[in-house]
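Question: what's this shape?

___
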Amino acid sequence: MLAVIGCGNLNRCDDGVGVIIARRLMAIGFEPSRRIRVFDAGTNGMDVLFQARGARKLVIIDACASGAEPGAVFEAPGGALENHPTPSYTLHDFRWDHALYAGRRIWANDFPDDVTVFLIEAQTLGLGFELSAPVARAADIVTARISQLMEAYSASEPAP
C-alpha cells in the first residue's frame, strides 16, 4: 500500500499546504483500495504514526520554514528527517518526524522503509486561510508530482 499524508494547519496560511495537497489528491478520484490511501493528518503526528502502519511506501507533505525562497520544494528521504521525540506532556508536540522515528521502533517491518517527504518553503505562517502566491504555485507542482507517483504505484502493484 502507498500512504500519502498531508500535514499542517489550515488556519495558518502556508502551513496548511500539506493538508490542501492531500485534499486535492483525494478529489482526483483514485479509487480507494488497499493499494493507495490519502490522509489529512492536520497537525496530529499520532495520525501519521497510525496511518503509515502497514504501508509499503509513505509520502508526507508539509510546509517548512528553513529560510529558503518561499515556494521552494524539497523532496527528501524520510530517514534523513526522522527525529527522536523529546519528552512532553502534550501530544501536540509529537510531529510527523517523531512518528517516523517511533513507527520504525514500534512496528519494525510493519512500518514503511520507503518514505519520501515533500516540504514546501512557507512565506506566511500567520493567521489566515489563503496560501501565498509562491506556495500556491508550489502546491500545484507537488500535487502533480505526487499524482504521478500514485499513478505509477497503482500500475505497478498487483491487485489485492
User: Anything to note?
Assistant: The chain has a mean pLDDT of 89. The domain at 2-156 is CATH 3.40.50.1450 (Rossmann fold). The helical segments are 17-27, 45-52, 78-81, 96-107, 133-156.
